[in-house]
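Pilot study result, target chain (313 residues):
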Amino acid sequence: MTIKRVAVAGAGTMGQGLAQTIARSGLEVLLIDSDESLVKKAIEKIGFSMNAEIARWGLTESEKRAILSRITTTTKLEEAKSCQIVIETIPEKICMKKEIFSKLDQICPPETVLITNTATLSVTEIAAAAKNQSRIIGVHFLNPVPKTSIAELVRGRLTSDSVFETTKRFLKMIEKTPVHVFECPGYITTRITLPMINEAIRVLAEGIAPCADIDNTMKLGIGLNMGPLSLADIIGLDTIVSWMENLHTETGEMTYVPAKLLRKMVRLGWYGAKSGRGFYRYDSEGRRIENSGVSPCELSMNTSSTITQEQKK
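Predicted structure:
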């Protein structure tokens, strides 16, 4: 099968990163979401992301225009039938994922490869909602998608060999190294990363050090490219809570019980870069504001009143 056009169902942070990455490889992208305002906002954020690359001399204005020209948007899932591959990037809720794959199975031709970007759910269970389960496969892309070089490739119980090979070929086309992982809750990256992020949040909550010091210590001392709290903001704190709850349900391990501070921040709407506030503050283009990390002193204040004041700005 010749891959020319790829649909991305879900225009959130992951969907935006995938659309940019796939379009940069030269493929056409159809970005789908239920609301017109969401896809318009997604295109704006993709533009902001590329502006940052241009500022670092990693991209040119003409390359940016070429990438954006390959991305079209729609609010109609039915238009995915024109694509050879469809990637789902909706929230990590089993009922939502099963519903969309049931629809895609009816909409798309039999040869279309259907990919779920789940990090913590069973590919086999998601695929059970479709009649043709053999064409459904899991690929866990890592955030930020344009900057990460690997993707975890996960077969469901009935995923066919041809779909597996086509998906590997597609990942190489978009310059991702596929790592074949046997189906299990959390795979490799999520299983290892979430406890580290959760513990970093507990260290912050205990007043041991401010955000920036925690992140810099892990970067310089352990050799990470990004500190755990910065990474949490990029993934999305609400997403992390959802992943941890799924893993706790699947494994029963207390390791995956979200830290109290993490839950508190999510309840207050501090989701990270996408909401403008997480462990750091972000401007309208999603760029982190210098010296904006949460400090132990700030945590001892009334958090509810703090966020109310920020919402008025």
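One observation from the pilot: Strands lie at 5-9, 28-32, 71-74, 85-88, 113-116, 136-141, 150-155, 177-180. A full batch analysis is planned for the follow-on phase.
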